[in-house]
Input
Amino acid sequence: MPGANAARCIDRAELERGLNRVRLISGDAQAGVFGPDTKIWQVNKETAIFLGAGRAALLQLAHPFVAYAIDRHSKTRDDPLGRFRRTFYQVFSMVFGTQECAFRASQSVWATHRRVSGTLPAGEGAWRAGTRYHANHPQALLWVHATLWDTSVACYEALVRPLRLEEKHDYYEETKRFAYLFGIPEDVLPPDWNAFRSYVEGMLASDFLVVTPVAAEMARFLFRPPLPGLGPLVRRYAEVTSWLLPERLAVGFGLDRGGKAGRARYQQTLRQLAALYRRLPRRLRYLPAYVEARRRLAGREGRDWIGELMTRALVGAPRLG
Output
């Protein structure tokens, strides 16, 4: 139950057990935690997954532990681009980096999370005022973990192709390695894809997810145009994001779906994006972190100037690790 044992947090011993699990599962240290033959690389190499970045972020903020942890313990308001880059640097390091790179990112994230704790100031949804939260709380980490992979599958299927059920089972089984990098215990994880989907759907329908005032404020900040002239594009992206969320959460975050006309625009946008996306050259379709990983495994030592520029734009550094 997501609200049970709210005071628990993952300690160093649980993190090390998770890393040991990964060592046993992943064989090639250079390929990293996953590797070219995994469904994770097949799906998450696609830049299409960024279609759901807003969805994943808002679903995470709908968990009060996450919302208050970010609001009170990060510089998101002052440096949103920096936080975006740091987050994706760590995620890409875990997914596409060497095993050493992934473990270093894992330990860094755990150490940062270890310092983040507090109490909820008011009762919201299923949560009582004064409930203790921790960034390393296993159920909160599970929810963040779930939003990433559930959103990745949804975006891949919307813009690339539908995945067969057996592919989804394989994909989900591989995502457990990512969970182990955060120390999430095996008994917390849904055992298979069907159980995972039941967990996600149950959370979306439950009052464990609630749009708190701080979450709503951060959502407004998230959809603020970063540059003059980008307002129409950001508003269209916000509308698309609203249709990727349950209606009650979209309303809570103040996102206007636009009624029947908005649904028609959303469906047309997806069709247009899918048609355009499938025509893009691989260099634009594939994440630079994935391209860097494939070059590493192929032993290509020359500099990839295009990849370095793209990686710097995304994560603030020319390379991972």
